[in-house]
């Protein structure tokens, strides 16, 4: 039997963040993942990107992961421009309004995971088991995990499910998840446009779903086109020239013509919330606990916040000599994150329904609401600060470190 303090199931962005944060506190950690050791091809852009806000950036800085990412490429964005195809409404969020140089960064998911893995390799108290499946979880006494590698038995005070939306760990624990299927798919691709993106994240709400152009470091953009399934199927069947025209037309040629488009991929859209974040000697983080529609770009930020909070709760318990897998300890994590995640999920779900509404009164209402909010300076500043992680109940890892000159103000 191999003994650890924490066993993390899943080495994606959230699981690897958690493992690094726990290792920073001197805890013994094992990370188990079905996939191989993460790698990254810097010559090609990853099609999946995330808009990481200031709180997520600070977490990665304090884990000494951000310099690895920054050495490859990141794309800071200063503004977010949102407008509605079904009304006259539009709103602009600008970093200058809150005294910042940026609202966040567009970063490739694969690059973040690769950088986190590189940091894990530098730690002497983390073991990584790649291409390994978990066969059994037992929490009847002390938590134990049986993996397929030579039927090895792993013992830990705490097992964490960070294994994504279809979490095997969650299923084994019998924790129910309430899922909302949007009957939509998101199309992602890297595109080049006639005009520069101006370090601005652009988003147009269409009747069939939002279309976003996210700025990349080389001047191109990453698109996320969320649309109804029949339209998604139609768009995926188009050749590149026809797709470029449909894309530019749907975006009102805001950045001129689309001059080049790379390979396209698509994935289904849904949201979910679990009935409980914790069980005996177990906890769920990230997509294993909650998923949201990508229209606000907050999924990765919520997951990284989960990891930072759980690491802080576990480290505090270990320092005081308490059992880090006890429900008493883990309830603090659940109380801290569940309400915040649920509030964001309900807000995004409400926005998704509001912008899909086709009735004339609702279209006029949302247009008026966007214009009024755009002219309400204090309200806009509150929205920006909360959405980017500059406010709220932040864990220590997400707060500025006064000892580092490169920290955000």
How would you describe this protein?
The structure is a single chain. With 409 residues, the chain is an alpha+beta fold. 35% of the residues lie in helices and 29% in strands. The chain contains 11 helices and 20 strands. It has helices spanning 13-24, 54-62, 66-72, 109-121, 168-173, 229-237, 240-250, 299-319, 327-356, 360-374, 377-387; strands spanning 2-9, 29-32, 49-52, 75-77, 79-84, 90-94, 104-108, 126-129, 134-138, 143-147, 153-161, 177-193, 200-206, 209-215, 221-228, 258-261, 265-274, 278-279, 282-284, 290-291. Strands 5, 6, 12, 13, 14, 15, 16, 17 and 20 form a 9-stranded mixed sheet that branches.
Please write out the topology.
Layout: E1 2-9, H1 13-24, E2 29-32, E3 49-52, H2 54-62, H3 66-72, E4 75-77, E5 79-84, E6 90-94, E7 104-108, H4 109-121, E8 126-129, E9 134-138, E10 143-147, E11 153-161, H5 168-173, E12 177-193, E13 200-206, E14 209-215, E15 221-228, H6 229-237, H7 240-250, E16 258-261, E17 265-274, E18 278-279, E19 282-284, E20 290-291, H8 299-319, H9 327-356, H10 360-374, H11 377-387
Helix pairs in contact: 1-4, 1-8, 3-4, 8-9
Rounded Rg: 21 Å
Proportion of beta-strand residues: 25-35%
List low-confidence stretches.
402-406
What structural category characterises the helix and strand content? alpha+beta
Q: Counting H and I runs of at least 4 residues, what is the number of helices?
A: 11
What is the general shape? globular
> Kindly, what is the distance between the CA atoms of the first and last residues, rounded to a whole number of angstroms?
47 Å
Structure summary, number of beta strands: 20
How much helix, percentage-wise, in residues?
A: 25-40%
Question: What is the typical, i.e. mean, pLDDT?
Answer: 91
- Largest sheet properties: 9 strands, mixed
């Amino acid at each position: 039997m191999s003994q650890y303090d924490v066993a993390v199931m899943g080495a994606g962005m959230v699981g690897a963040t958690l493992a690094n944060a726990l290792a920073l506190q001197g805890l013994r950690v094992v990370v188990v993942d079905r996939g191989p050791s993460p790698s990254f091809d810097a010559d090609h852009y990853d099609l999946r990107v995330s808009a990481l806000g200031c709180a997520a950036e600070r977490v990665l800085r304090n884990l000494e992961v951000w310099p690895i990412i920054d050495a490859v490429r990141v794309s800071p964005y200063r503004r977010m421009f949102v407008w509605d195809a079904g009304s006259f409404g539009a709103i602009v969020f600008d970093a200058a309004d809150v005294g910042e140089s940026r609202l966040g960064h567009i970063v490739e998911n694969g690059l973040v995971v690769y950088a986190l893995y590189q940091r894990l390799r530098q730690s002497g108290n983390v073991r990584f088991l790649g291409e390994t499946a978990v066969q059994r979880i037992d929490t009847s006494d002390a938590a134990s995990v049986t993996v397929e590698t030579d039927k090895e038995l792993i013992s830990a005070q705490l097992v964490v499910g960070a294994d994504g939306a279809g979490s095997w760990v969650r299923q084994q624990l019998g924790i129910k998840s309430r899922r909302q299927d949007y009957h939509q798919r998101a199309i992602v691709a890297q595109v080049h446009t006639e005009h520069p993106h101006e370090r601005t994240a652009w988003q147009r709400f269409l009747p069939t779903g939002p279309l976003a152009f996210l700025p990349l470091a080389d001047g191109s953009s990453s698109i996320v086109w969320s649309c109804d399934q029949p339209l998604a199927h139609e768009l995926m069947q188009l050749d590149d020239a026809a797709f470029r025209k449909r894309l530019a037309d749907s975006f009102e040629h805001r950045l001129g013509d689309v001059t080049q488009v790379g390979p396209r991929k698509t994935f289904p859209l849904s949201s979910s919330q679990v009935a409980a974040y914790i069980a005996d000697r177990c906890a769920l983080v990230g997509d294993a606990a909650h998923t949201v529609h990508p229209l606000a770009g907050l999924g990765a930020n919520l997951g990284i916040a989960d990891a930072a909070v759980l690491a802080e709760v576990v480290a505090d318990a270990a320092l005081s000599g308490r059992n880090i897998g006890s429900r008493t300890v883990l309830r603090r994590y659940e109380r801290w994150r569940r309400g915040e995640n649920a509030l964001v999920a309900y807000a995004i779900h409400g926005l998704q329904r509001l912008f899909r509404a086709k009735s004339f009164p609702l279209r006029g209402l949302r247009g008026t609401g966007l214009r009024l909010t755009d002219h309400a300076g204090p309200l806009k500043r509150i929205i920006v600060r909360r959405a980017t992680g500059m406010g709220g109940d932040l864990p220590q890892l997400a707060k500025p470190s006064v000892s580092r000159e490169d920290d955000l103000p």
